[in-house]
Fold this sequence. Notes:
With 222 residues, the chain is of the alpha+beta class. It folds into 2 domains: 3-150, Jelly Rolls (Sandwich); 152-220, Winged helix-like DNA-binding domain superfamily/Winged helix DNA-binding domain (Arc Repressor Mutant, subunit A, Orthogonal Bundle), CATH 1.10.10. The protein contains 8 helices and 8 strands, in the order H-E-E-E-E-H-E-H-H-H-E-H-H-E-E-H. The chain has helices at 22-31, 85-93, 114-123, 125-151, 154-164, 174-181, 185-197, 213-220, and strands spanning 33-37, 42-44, 52-66, 72-79, 100-113, 169-170, 201-204, 207-210. Strands 1, 2, 3, 4 and 5 form a 5-stranded antiparallel β-sheet that branches. It has a 3-stranded antiparallel β-sheet with strand order 6-8-7. Strand 7 (201-204) and strand 8 (207-210) form a beta hairpin. The longest helix has 27 residues, at 125-151. The mean pLDDT is 87. This is Putative transcriptional regulator, Crp/Fnr family. One of its GO terms (molecular function) is DNA binding. Keywords: DNA-binding, Transcription, Transcription regulation. Pfam families: HTH_Crp_2 (PF13545).
Amino acid sequence: xxxxxxxxxxxxxxxxxxxxxxxxxxxxxxxxxxxxxxxxxxxxxxxxxxxxxxxxxxxxxxxxxxxxxxxxxxxxxxxxxxxxxxxxxxxxxxxxxxxxxxxxxxxxxxxxxxxxxxxxxxxxxxxxxxxxxxxxxxxxxxxxxxxxxxxxxxxxxxxxxxxxxxxxxxxxxxxxxxxxxxxxxxxxxxxxxxxxxxxxxxxxxxxxxxxxxxxxxxxxxx
Length: 222
């Protein structure tokens, strides 16, 4: 029996599933696939069908929406120990992906095929609670993003993005920051230049350094 469950040892990364019954574990042991992908891999594209529930074991990817003009806005990131809200939405609603994702750090995922996912949702109260709890938390994060985009100024959102990086040294281009904010590179460059003139940051090629966090904190909370 131990050998049967060797391929679901990854469940230890999700303590909420520690009480899964034997039937649920049997389904996972039988159907789950472990996949890996390097940086730059496209996990899924907008408009493509969803075939599996994703449980992230290692690494990180970003989920983003692309406008018809080619402008990108970050929706959220999926890191180790997390699931993907858009994947959950597509599986529950039998719909195609409304956004795309790309790997930022090498990932390792446990993929539960759609048929097994739906069976687990019916048969296992523990699994069902795990899925819906994570789904609710991620929806709340998306509502926060909507609030920021709709009601917060760009300089406040930029300050928050910079503060989210714990290190004072940020290795990120103006274009990458613009993609995260869903705006043009030129706009971000102007905002960063203003921050540099205020003494809040120091700009370099492909990187910047936070000099005065307090200035950014005031902007982020404005």
